[in-house]
């Protein structure tokens, strides 16, 4: 029987989706958690007995659908469970009141504060997605003076007005000048390289999804977490539970998920390479025979299709996966990209993978100069003819460097490098002036946090937020455009 609905984040396709939930589906989640935690315990020991987890968690209020059934994000549903609320005080540093705080900034402040107070007990740091972990670190950069003062005095800042957060914090806080001094000395340094390991010296790993669109955050996370492994434990989506990472110590770029055939019925639509490394659906879905899980082939790419006990039948998830190998006879998959995230001015199609590859090549020009590309997204500007690709970049200087010191010639070269790295069809269209010069718009610090805040204000859970690789929303576009501090164009057609 249908008991409630789950809501997707809505950042990938523009609108949240409602997914049915049954009691059987909920039981599968419990089994799934036990399976992926067993893999973590195998490599890191029994973390449930070793200490506490500093996990940044955020819930949104449930909504009532027209049927009278409740709907909530996957993460909110988990946090609402009795089992989770029972184990929370023992295993996590964050009280339930901070997770359900309606103001994400107040909740984040309190979760970081209580994580710092209990820093000697913390054995893992993380969140669902890498982007949320980075949001927490950057928030800490901006508020560490205030956090230290609160720890020193044992009093919570006045701007934290949520009664639940204040009551929960009061049970843990007491004046501790010595602890505040230690944290202040750690934070008051020229470089924040390795800051996570310094603040939480007993932490064994950083737990968050680093695959798919989150791979763009790997370099920055490794900077802040120097020496700690980044662990993506599992692959699940709003539609279905899919697989676990049996080698959590592998590099993020090598992560493969072993599919669990008892979680859903998995089928796959074959996908072919169209140009260079880009993935293109070269078939009519209705005429293409679906491949069962037992018949997938190593090295082949597929679009995931699921049928679930909750009622989804041959539902196309929109994820493109590649078979990377097998564990015994169970297929293992690497996440390649989202199917529908593409840029196109004319008939060329630039995928998420194409875009990531080109950005990776271009941002390499910044690294030797002491600058880091922290965020990016894109859209197609067709306000003039011919249209052109626009990339929004947020750049940060290492060791106190100011982005104003960055030579404009380097940014122009980044534009050229991106165009040279894009696929053959794009380069031909550029030479024929069917596509105009690629543009990079540099935005000021905090612009992508403002973008995240916009989506959260529209109902997205901060725990499930995934920054879109391609902007579709006019309102979101205005947020970034209003924060542009520099515009740069490729000066010539790529070779």
From TrEMBL:
Keywords: Ligase
Pfam annotation, one family: GH3_M
Protein's UniProt keywords contain Cell membrane: no
Domain of life of the organism encoding this protein: Eukaryota
Keyword Ligase: yes
Gene Ontology MF terms in the entry: acid-amino acid ligase activity
InterPro entries, per the entry: GH3, GH3_C, GH3_M
Regions crossing the membrane: none
Coiled-coil boundaries: none
Start and end residues of each GH3 middle domain: 257-338
CC terms in the record's Gene Ontology section: cytoplasm
Domain GH3 C-terminal: 354-475
Family: Belongs to the IAA-amido conjugating enzyme family.
Protein name as catalogued: Indole-3-acetic acid-amido synthetase GH3.17-like
Organism: Gossypium mustelinum
Lineage, highest ranks first: Eukaryota, Viridiplantae, Streptophyta, Embryophyta, Tracheophyta
């Amino acid at each position: 029987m249908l008991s409630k609905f789950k809501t997707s984040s809505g950042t990938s396709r523009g609108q949240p989706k409602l997914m049915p939930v049954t009691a059987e589906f909920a039981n599968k989640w419990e089994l799934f958690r036990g399976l992926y935690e067993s893999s973590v315990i195998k490599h890191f020991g029994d973390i449930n007995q070793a200490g506490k987890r500093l996990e940044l968690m955020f819930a949104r209020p449930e909504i009532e659908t027209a049927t009278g059934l409740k709907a909530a994000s996957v993460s909110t549903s988990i946090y609402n469970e009795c089992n989770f609320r029972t184990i929370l005080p023992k295993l996590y540093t964050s009280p339930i009141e901070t997770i359900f705080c309606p103001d994400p900034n107040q909740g984040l402040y309190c979760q970081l504060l209580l994580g710092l107070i209990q820093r000697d007990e913390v054995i893992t740091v993380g969140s669902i997605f890498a982007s949320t972990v980075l949001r927490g670190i950057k928030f800490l950069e901006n508020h560490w003076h205030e956090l230290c003062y609160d720890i020193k005095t044992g009093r919570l800042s006045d701007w934290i007005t949520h009664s639940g957060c204040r009551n929960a914090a009061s049970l843990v806080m007491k004046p501790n000048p010595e602890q505040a001094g230690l944290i202040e000395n750690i934070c008051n340094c020229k470089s924040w390289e390795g800051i996570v390991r310094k603040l939480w010296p007993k932490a064994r790993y950083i737990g968050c999804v680093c695959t798919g669109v989150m791979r763009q955050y790997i370099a920055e996370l490794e900077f802040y977490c120097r020496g700690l492994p980044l662990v993506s434990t599992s692959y699940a989506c709003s539609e279905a539970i899919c697989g676990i990472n049996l080698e959590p110590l592998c590099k993020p770029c090598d992560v493969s998920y072993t599919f669990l055939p008892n979680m859903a019925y998995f089928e796959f639509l074959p996908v072919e390479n169209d140009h260079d490394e880009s993935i293109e659906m070269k078939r009519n879905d209705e005429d293409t025979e679906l491949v069962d899980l037992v018949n997938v082939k190593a090295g082949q790419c597929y679009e995931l299709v699921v049928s679930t006990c909750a009622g989804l039948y041959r539902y196309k998830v929109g994820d493109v996966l590649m078979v990377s190998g097998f564990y015994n006879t169970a297929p293992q998959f690497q996440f390649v990209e989202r199917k529908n995230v593409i840029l196109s001015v004319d008939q060329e199609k630039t995928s998420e993978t194409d875009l990531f590859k080109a950005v990776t090549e271009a941002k390499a020009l910044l690294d030797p100069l002491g600058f880091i590309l922290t965020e990016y997204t894109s859209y197609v500007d067709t306000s003039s003819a011919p249209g052109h690709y626009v990339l929004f970049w947020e750049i940060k200087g290492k060791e106190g460097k100011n982005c104003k010191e960055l030579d404009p010639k380097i940014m122009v070269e980044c534009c050229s490098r991106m165009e040279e790295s894009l696929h053959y069809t794009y380069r031909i269209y550029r030479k024929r002036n069917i596509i105009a010069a690629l543009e990079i718009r540099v935005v000021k610090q905090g612009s992508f946090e403002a973008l995240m805040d916009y989506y959260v204000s529209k109902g997205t859970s901060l725990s499930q937020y995934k920054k879109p690789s391609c902007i579709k929303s006019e309102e979101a576009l205005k947020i970034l455009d209003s924060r542009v501090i520099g515009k740069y164009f490729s000066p010539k057609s790529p070779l």
